[in-house]
Amino acid sequence: MQQQQHTSHPDPTALGLFGLAMVTLVASSQKLGLTQGTSMVLPWAIFLGALAQLVAGVYDFKKGNAFGGTAFIAYGFFWLAVGMSWLIGMGALGDSLKAAADSRQLGVAFIGYLIFTLYMTIGATQTNTVLFAIFALIDLLFIGLSISVLSTNEALKEAAHQLAAYAELLISLASFYLSAAYIFKAQFGKTLLPIGGKLFASKTTL
């Protein structure tokens, strides 16, 4: 997600972050109870959460940015999978698929993405402070999602749901901020919104 070298390809970071900001904003409104259902979240999951991040990831790989490319594409496919899961749950893909659905498998997938996000959070220490904060919030989101799906304790499920809801809203706000910071720097040639630097210097090169 952070530009590492200058090539003829434009920096796709602002686009990818905007996609993330939009889908988490809409999705968090449902988790917070401000809106109902996931039917109208689906278009934003598919086109902003998925396609915008996939496009940004492809361009990041073309620029030689393995970290950004992996992050954007992995989360892009996450939103496609979530959208498909919602469609199955709604019965849009047939009653037999809906009847056979086991939501615990979605909880296991959330754990898998939590593992992925944890090591990406470590990698984000070498980018900037705001991006690191976004990854840390995504960690909290997946912790909340995993517990809310897999726990059998209703009080714990509700607390985890609230954790996921507020983490997702903060992810959106931070992503809007960082997207704007990249756009302003590209357009004005200087930093207008501070994003901080690396959390610590790394002496290791891969």
Automatic annotation (TrEMBL):
Q: Does the keyword Heme apply?
A: no
Q: Name one Pfam family in it.
A: Gpr1_Fun34_YaaH
Residue ranges of the TM segments: 12-29, 41-59, 71-94, 106-124, 130-151, 163-184
Protein name per UniProt: Uncharacterized protein
Compartment list: Membrane
Superkingdom of the organism of origin: Bacteria
Protein's UniProt keywords contain Transmembrane: yes
Q: How does it sit in the membrane?
A: Multi-pass membrane protein
The entry assigns this protein to a family as follows:
Belongs to the acetate uptake transporter (AceTr) (TC 2.A.96) family.
Q: Name one GO cellular component term.
A: membrane
Q: Which InterPro entries does UniProt cross-reference here?
A: Gpr1/Fun34/SatP-like (IPR000791), SatP (IPR047623)
**Which keywords label this protein?**
Membrane, Transmembrane, Transmembrane helix
